Amino acid sequence: RIKPDITAIGVNVFSTLFDNQYGNKSGTSFATPTVSSVAALLYERFKQLNNNTNPTSDLIKGLLCNNADDINNLRPDYRTGFGRLNALNAIRALEEGRFERRSLNQG
User: Span 65-76, mean pLDDT?
Assistant: First the structure.
């Protein structure tokens, strides 16, 4: 398995600080909310397009990974996974139906 699956910007993220201040912070604690938020947006958009049907988690993960911007080596790697999150590409792929939903049978 390739880990990480995907990366997001987590350096110099403008955010809230103590004492009602704002400033730049860095770390995974700032990249993770970005990926989670985009996953939530994809989930909601899927429901809007599909009569309030919930998407499967593998579909959301596939949209995130397969629409990321490859920023390191060509193809997935152990440093950046499938690449940097690209929310717009993922939403467009969902809206344009650029995905397949199939199942495999044992046998």
Answer: 93
* Residue 72: per-residue pLDDT: 84
- Mean pLDDT score across all residues of the chain: 94
Q: Which residue has the higher pLDDT, 11 or 107?
A: 11
SS3 per residue for the chain = CCCCCCECCCCCEEEEECCCEEEEECCHHHHHHHHHHHHHHHHHHHHHHCCCCCCCHHHHHHHHHHCCECCCCCCCECCCECCECCHHHHHHHHHCCCCCCCCCCCC
- Please give the model's pTM, rounded to 2 decimal places: 0.88
Q: How far is CA 66 from CA 57, 58, 95, in A?
A: 14, 12, 15
To 10 degrees, what angle do helices 57-66 and 28-49 make?
120
> What is the residue type of 55?
P
